[in-house]
Amino acid sequence: MPRCYRLVFVLPLLFFSLHSTMSRSQTVISLWSNGQMPNDLQNRSVQEKIEVGNDGILRISNIVFPTLSVYVPTTPNGAAVMICPGGGYAIEASGHEGVDVAKWFNSIGVTAFVLKYRLPDDKLWSNKHEVALQDALQGIKIIRESADKYKIDPNRIGIMGFSAGGHLAATVSTLWHQAKELKGFENLSDAQACKPNFSILMYPVITSGPFKHAGSFERLFGKTPSPEQLEHYSAEKQVSAQTPPTLLVHATDDKGVPVENSMLYYDALRKLRIPASMLLYENGGHGFGLAKKLKGSVHSWPESCHQWLVGMGYIQ
């Protein structure tokens, strides 16, 4: 098991004082043993930043040490989900798109892991577009290796992502079989260790085409990405027979990430007969998280997600 840094045990306590809806996880795991992260430029002058805005949203940026925060339900049912908060690859909204969601999963017996992944930054990382993907693949691998410890069925491990975190989750879901081509995975014996068994994509960034979220792709590649980079990280173009079943959730009035992102991914899955479901809501906008403060049908998406997990056999 990768060692835990002393610092990361302090952070959940700090989160609690900053955001009333957050609580301590039982364990925080460092993703990379001894801090030996792939693509690390060893610049430690950058300090991690944690703040809560006037909107009440917790934001984490300048992430140097990526982690998994573990949330274990009272009675685990064997299913697990790794949650990737959104934030346009500039910050991570780890409260309403992280810990709050983990606690909801716990309420239905699912063990949840909130991923704190590295963000693309030329000051910190070489090949900055790879680092979030490296962390997410490593996160799935660690969860599968820890299945016995947390009473998890290794065949019922999913990935969930919100907005840009949804892009990360979709990228893992479509490119997991290429893990051994990335730094940090040279000794990986089987890429299946990094494969999510299902994915839940919440108002995800998907495409680099006409409906793209420009800010996310600029953060990944800068202002002059190559056509090859855009193609490789346009998730609907990378769907294959190896892509896991997927639930997509989106509001049609989303002005941040157009609903066509989910529709394109859904169509790509259906063309290959990969099980796919999509929940579309007339109202909800972008970044609604659990939608506790919203009225209308979008408020019920967690219940529909629960039903999907049961129907697909991930919750037994």
Write the topology of this structure.
Elements (H helix, E strand, L loop, with lengths): L5 H13 L8 E4 L18 E4 L5 E4 L5 E5 L8 E5 L10 H13 L3 E6 L14 H15 L11 E6 L1 H12 L22 E5 L11 H8 L5 H6 L13 E6 L8 H12 L4 E6 L19 H11 L5
Briefly, what is this?
This protein is α/β, with parallel strands linked by helices and 316 residues long.
Q: What is the CATH third-level topology name?
A: Rossmann fold
Number of strands: 10
Give the C-alpha Rg: 18 Å
Structural class: alpha/beta
Mean pLDDT, all residues: 92
Distance N terminus to C terminus?
Answer: 28 Å
Query: What is the helix/strand order?
Result: HEEEEEHEHEHEHHEHEH
Total helical elements: 8
The portion of residues forming beta strands comes to: 15-25%
Unreliable sequence segments: 1-23
Instruction: Name the CATH class.
Output: Alpha Beta
CATH level-four homologous superfamily name: Alpha/Beta hydrolase fold, catalytic domain
| Global morphology | globular
Pfam families: BD-FAE (PF20434)
Signal peptide: 1-25
GO molecular function, one term: hydrolase activity
Domain BD-FAE-like: 70-269
